[in-house]
Predict the 3D structure of the following.
Amino acid sequence: MGASVLRLEDRPLLVGEGRFLADVSFPRELHLRVVRSDVAHGLLRGVDLGEARASEGVVAAWSAEEVAHLGAIEFRMTGLDELRPHCQRVLASERVRYVGDPVAVVIATDPYLAEDAAELAFVDIEPLQPVLDAASPDAIAPLTLAHEHGDIEAAFAGAHRVVELHAAVGRHSGIPLETRGLLARPTDGPEGIGVELYGVAKVPHYNCATIAAMLGLKPGQVVGREGHVGGGFGVRGELYPEDLLVTHAALKLGRPVKWVEDRREHLLAANHSRDQSYRLRAAVDAGGVVQALEAEFFHDQGAYVRTHGATVPNLSVALLPGPYLVPAYRVRGHIRLTNKTPAGTYRAPGRFESTFVRERLMDAVATACGLDAAEVRRRNLIPPDAMPFDRGVSTLSTPVVYDSGDYARTLERLLDHMGYESLQEALAKRRAAGEMAGLGLGMFVEKSGLGPFEDVRVRYLPGGGVEVVTGAASVGQGMETVIAQICAEVLGVDYGEVTVRHGQTDMIGRGMGAFASRVTVMTGVAVYLAASELAATGEPAEATFSADHMTYPYGAHAAVVSVDPGTGGVTVERYVVAYDVGRAVNPMLCEGQIVGGVAQGVGGTLLELFSYDADGQPLATSFMDYLVPTVAEQPQVEVLLSEDAPSPLNPLGLKGAGEGGTNACGAAIAAAIDDAIGRPGAVRALPATPELVRSLIRA
């Protein structure tokens, strides 16, 4: 542990032996295509599949009537009763609610024949006026999340000044290299007819159990087979309507059925994310210390509430105060439904958004009080002797209690590494010479290690080596390597002698999966416990690690940017992340997670946006319009990894490292743009596209 050893997962991927969903096929395989609404909002008068059924190679074609018994897809997380009427059914019946809403499926012997036949489906829709603004009175308003603690009224009444801000984060999401898909193969086992699912990811046990329940099967009759996964990022691996449709088709037709979405389909139908607009105000004393924070925001959930329930706005509510003391806090988060693609989680969900608006507010406080951006943060940070720090709010069914941390030390480490004061002087000289160049900061607290449990089995293999079996999943984050390192450390063997088996739901009875930066913390500690027993007895060992509190890593970002005054284009010249993970099992993999997180944060900050026209038609349905950053847009990221504050909540002191690279990107880059163009507080909405920045320069 603690060594930057090479990943065990990489060899098959590097030599072309990766086994992704599209690489898996079986004899007599059928292919499914989804017929989708091309209208954002309308009454579904009928679906005529006559021509589609008569097409070459078509085996079956169904609309909602044939699958009405499947019901709506329930919540996996943060399920609240007020949201339940808005869960999505597998096929729309009476009304369509977004462009991409599934209305029918066509199954054929060839994927291209299936696609051709799907084009022949006639879908009769009477258009209705779409709702595209979450703040509109016409948006469906199922729920408002509210929280308050401290004496808000007294704080604002006695404030030296009140600083207000309106800010927003646009709609974007994770775009993994491998799009969604599923292959369902009927089986005949001891429990009767069942099905194997290839392409399950992230939460295989949950998805298999839920599919079984919805199809009237026993849990063991649906078995998940996780292969290689070409990226997840919160988007891929959730339970979608297509997963039920593919499995149902395979069982009904008695043949393997496969569906792999194309990129346009992914941009239309996979979970979107972000899309929150805020109004904030802070009560500030004469020294620039925030005494109270009041916030109201609108969360655009899109057309339906999918498996995440209220997870994203719930996280925004809980973590908006961030690393600062903020004695009094009031927030109202309005969940609203519109006629856009449904929203879910994306790397640092609820935190990328809330960190952006909070840090913009802190910059506004600095400007109002005549303080440097770093100084205003120093004055407001929670001190290390206040740990553990009870935030007074809960999220994901756990109280938010920061377990450990020295936030000021991390900030100073970042500033020292940057040469903060001399860098400010150098940038001022560049601006005096006519360049637009600037520096910005952002700080954050992250959450990780979500419970409630993870199970593992560890044993010595008869032919030598060690086997670990876990219900956790891999989405490309290097979990096999990290788990092997922990196991090897306990047993005194080389990590290459440890085989980690995961994502096969018939190998272990339960598993929570890979999300919320939890695998290293939850599975890693479970492996430590089981391996310790194995070392003591020599006999196969099982262990469960349970946790009712999350761990809270934290960090600071700094960005140096230059702005083209003619085009408004932003170049990130330098990017530094200081991040405390408690204990780094593999520092190289932690750094890789941070660098990858920054890459996605840069995309959401400067480029990526799902926009719509007035009729609700999506305007970003290919990479011509949805601008994912390339290597050319990515800065060299300098990572300052620290282990100042091991978590007291687990015996290894572990915290997660998967999302901190994304968290404060928007905040740091926006502040740097402000500095570059000489307009404090100018960037209040993301993405800061060249068009937006050019308009700010000219304003």
The longest strand covers residues 290-302.
